[in-house]
Amino acid sequence: MATKSPAILPRPLKAKTVSDCQSELQQAQQLIDARIHDIMNSFPQGRRNKLFSFRFGSIAAIHALEIKDAFKLLDIDYHHLNLRLLAAVNYHGDTV
After folding, report:
1. Where are the alpha helices (DSSP H) in 1-96?
2. 91: nearest Cα among 66, 55, 58, 57
3. Pairwise CA distance, residues 70 & 72, whole Å
4. For burial by CB atoms within 10 Å, which of 46, 73, 76, 89 has the most?
5. What are the pLDDT digits (tens) for 7-16?
6. Taking the model in full, what pTM does it have?
7. Residue 38 and residue 20: Cα distance in Å, rounded?
8. 35 touches 71 (CB < 8 A)
């Protein structure tokens, strides 16, 4: 019997995929933060946190959602991002 070594993927390909995923996550985080900031600034100064939590929930709860769900909740256009790389990942990069 001939022994064959398993095919090994080159490391640069894997590193590039991880860096692509990380850059997509950073872009998603920036979009979410910017949208939260815009929404908070649209509310009166003294009632921002309360009004935001009534309409959207807490910021921590939004960060715990899957990226795609957070985009839908905050009405963010996400069609220019590759959400396949961010499937089942929350704001912090943890698996949901």
Report:
1. 11-42, 48-56, 59-64, 67-74
2. 66
3. 5
4. 89
5. 665 555 444 4
6. 0.78
7. 27
8. no
Phi/psi of residue 29, nearest 5 degrees: -60, -40
Nearest by Cα to 29 from 59, 58, 55? 59
Residue 18 token pair: 């991880």
Residue-wise pLDDT tens digits, 18-62: 778 899 999 999 999 999 999 999 999 999 999 999 999 999 999
User: Tokens representing 94?
Assistant: 């943890």
Query: CA–CA separation, 66 vs 91, rounded Å?
Result: 7
Token pair belonging to 65: 């959602």
